[in-house]
Amino acid sequence: MSDAPRPCDTHPDIVGFKYPLPHLAQSLKSQRKVKIVAIGSSSTAGEGNIVPFPCRLELALRGQFHGRMIDVLNRGIGGQEALDELSRFGPDVIGEAPALVIWQVGTNAVFRLGQYSFDDVAASIAAGLDRIAGFAMDVVLMDLQYTTAVVKPEKIKLAEQTVAMIAAAAQKAGVNVFRRFALMRRWCVDGGIPIAELIDPTDPSQLHMSEWATNCVTQALYGAIKGALPATA
Question: What would be the CATH architecture of the domain defined by 12-227?
């Protein structure tokens, strides 16, 4: 039996961005210091012993763009949702003046079923996008992870509605969405990867992603970002 790690298929057809990233491109072109802010919940902050995506993305971007001091600031707080994150936009997003904002959102509205109103989450996402629309920063919304805690029979309908709501908010605001839910579902449904392999084996909640899934999601995000930049960047 081979001990080789499972290969990572990032499915650019699913996660590729619709819009370019002009502010990030300009920052990479004209500035030595480039700042990206990742705001969200535990998927951003990190959980257990698994390194979260902001740290991994920072290393990938630094490896690609030599000579640039690229910092991906981790502004994730476990357990939060759009309403909570919106209240932190002043110091954690706008105050940092990043070239790119990655807003991971929606998971806790499903995981903590009944704690958050769907309409309140939708309104908070729209308000957050409106708030930063006037600043020189690109925005990417990252939707839910496809893990057991999110796709239980009593939650799957709300999960799919939340994914659709996030996509609609991104479309209306003219910003990109990173389709994490669809990517991970493709791995399971079409790729034959057991959902258990996408989940951190030490997490009894079955919410958080495994080492492999976190790494592969980051690779897919990195590819989407790179693909939305001009070759001259």
Answer: 3-Layer(aba) Sandwich (3.40)
